[in-house]
Amino acid sequence: MKREAVWMRASILLAMTFLMLPVSAFATDVGKGACSTGMSRQLDYWVGNWNVTSPGSDYKGVSTVAVSMDKCLFTENWDNGKGHIGKNLFAYSPDDKTWYGMFADNEGRVHIFTDGKVDDGSAVFHGPSRSDTGATVLNRITIRRVSPVKVERTWEKSNDNGATWNTVFQGDYTRAKE
Fold first, then answer.
1. What is the CATH number of the domain that holds 117?
2. How many domains does the chain divide into?
3. b/e per residue, 98-115, with b = 16+ CB within 10 A?
4. Residues 112-140: pLDDT tens digits?
5. What confidence score (pLDDT) does residue 26 get?
6. 81: alpha, beta or left, given left = phi > 0 and alpha = psi -120 to 50?
7. Is the pTM for the entire model greater than 0.70?
8. Within the chain, how many helices (H) and strands (E) appear?
């Protein structure tokens, strides 16, 4: 029994050692710079600090969009100013030429977007989720560049497999003065 305990501790220490190593310790030069040009740069217009409002409401939030992981991952951190915060991730896969996204917030919601298309200052992401009753709901997020200092983002949901869409959030992003 004592030998098993020693083996278990050694295994845990070895696993922790690998987890603490930087990813670059395992990387090769094959993918280096793969995201610095081309399709992976199509959301660059959205990078920055933003003030977010919603037409017809008193919504006033903030958003920061940044790139990381050798410019392969776009991360949006948002805060609605009332305690609701979230993180949204977007990345382009050159393997299947598709954009992917994931949204998570501090209220336990997670949405996965597996069918994204980005071109000419407009991005559209699709993904399924479930309603409170367990029914399938389709989600569609659109991020559209209006000007160098303005971006619009719309979140729509469909309960009828995409036949009709209802807007659940419209955000007007205005670049924050730095």
1. 2.40.128.20
2. 1
3. bbbbbbeeeeeeebebee
4. 998 899 988 999 999 999 988 999 999 99
5. 35
6. left
7. yes
8. 1, 10
